[in-house]
Structure of NADP-dependent oxidoreductase domain-containing protein:
Amino acid sequence: MTSHSYPLPRKPGVQIPAVGFGVFQSADAYASALGALETGYRHLDTAEIYYSEPETGKAVSEFLAANPTLNRADIFICSKLWEVDLSLPGMPPTFESMGHPPPDGSGAWKTTAAKLGRTQYTTPDAIAGFTRSLEKMGPGIEYIDLYLLHNPRPGKQARVDAWLGLQEMEAQGKVRALGVSNWSKRHLEELVADARVTSPPTVNQIEFHPWCQQRELVEYCKQQGIVVVAYSPLAQGTRLGDPVVVEVAEKYGKTVAQVVLKWCLQSNVVIIPKSDNKKRMAQNMDLWGWELAEEDMEKINGLDGGIEARVGEWDPDAWE
Ligand SMILES: NC(=O)c1ccc[n+]([C@@H]2O[C@H](COP(=O)([O-])OP(=O)(O)OC[C@H]3O[C@@H](n4cnc5c(N)ncnc54)[C@H](OP(=O)(O)O)[C@@H]3O)[C@@H](O)[C@H]2O)c1
């Protein structure tokens, strides 16, 4: 069975807890992040584009202040650099506001490099973006455990340039490990082929659940020693009525969500489910002391619908 954390490659002493908690689209990000910590999660996943870095940092600082037997090293925080600088004038002020037209009458927010006409995946902008992420987490958070380039979209040169900026942040001790998200095998190969890349990605965070298994990419990452973090591991709750997982859940006396998350863990990936509900938060981390039998793993393996079955926007192979 999988251990409760994975060592990050080439990062002595840095362990990523196998069960984390996503702070994206929470009704109240601070309440959910704090609730998750109180429930026992020790790994929080936020991002610049989620607009939940301040709430995540505040939740960690206040939780640690209320629990003096714990310290910063007991909590693992991941955040991510978006492809455009969201602090520029004309950017949406909140994640929720992206669902509404901007007041300037332009019809759409410019949250992608294509719409803005420039990316922050440059070396100085990546440093500035990382620095903003860290500052937004507040005075109690002096380093980030894991920082990712959120997407491959701005292109090859931009990916390398941004990476070089993040390497500087790592060298200065402001971040303990670096990774990527939504990257394909080719993106990873191209990055490490650059001689200036001296600290290769330790993590690739991708959509992964029974209906979208991205097996080739997962296998490639494992061969390279890259830890796979499964986002939307519950397929955002959209497939929990699938008769195959319902039947397996009944067999084990577990909830469907627990079976889906356990299948992810037994596939040797890290999971970061999101919930605003404390009962579900507890349920989603009550995953130890029982195992899915090989035959049930195989049944769930058979549900893979390929990248077309994803619930999010990212097909890693769709980007140059
Ligand atoms: N890197 C990327 O591009 C990327 C993209 C998407 C997500 N992510 C990360 O991955 C995290 C998780 O992904 P996600 O939020 O997209 O989806 P998810 O965790 O697969 O699903 C969350 C949904 O499932 C519901 N849910 C949670 N526990 C449940 C349970 N036990 N039973 C039934 N329903 C349950 C939640 O509702 P309630 O809140 O009401 O419980 C919510 O609607 C995000 O928070 C974010 O940190 C990363």
About this structure: Residues 22-24, 45, 181-182, 205, 231-237, 240, 255, 257, 272-277, 280, 283-284, 312, 314 surround NAP (CB under 6 Å).
